[in-house]
Amino acid sequence: MKSGNLTKFLVAVIAILAIFGYYISPLAMSIKQGLDLQGGTHVVLEAVDTPEAKVDDDAVKRVVKIIEQRVNEIGLTEPVIQRQGERRIIVELPGIKDPEKAIEMLGKTALLEFQDESGTTVMTGKDLKDAKAEINQNKSTVVALEFSPDGTKLFGDLTTKNVGKKISILLDKKVLTSPVVNEPILGGKAVITGSRNIEEAQDLAILLRSGSLPVKVEVLEMRTVGPSLGQDSKDKSVIAFGIGIGAIVIFMLLFYRLSGFVANISLILYVMMLLFALKMLNATLTLPGIAGIILSMGMAVDANVLIFERFKEEFRAGKTLRAAMDAGFSRAFSTILDSNVTTLISAAVLFFFGAGPIKGFAITLGLGILLSMFTAITITRFMLTMLMRANVIKNGKIFGA
Question: In this structure, are 177 and 286 located in the same domain?
Answer without folding.
Answer: no
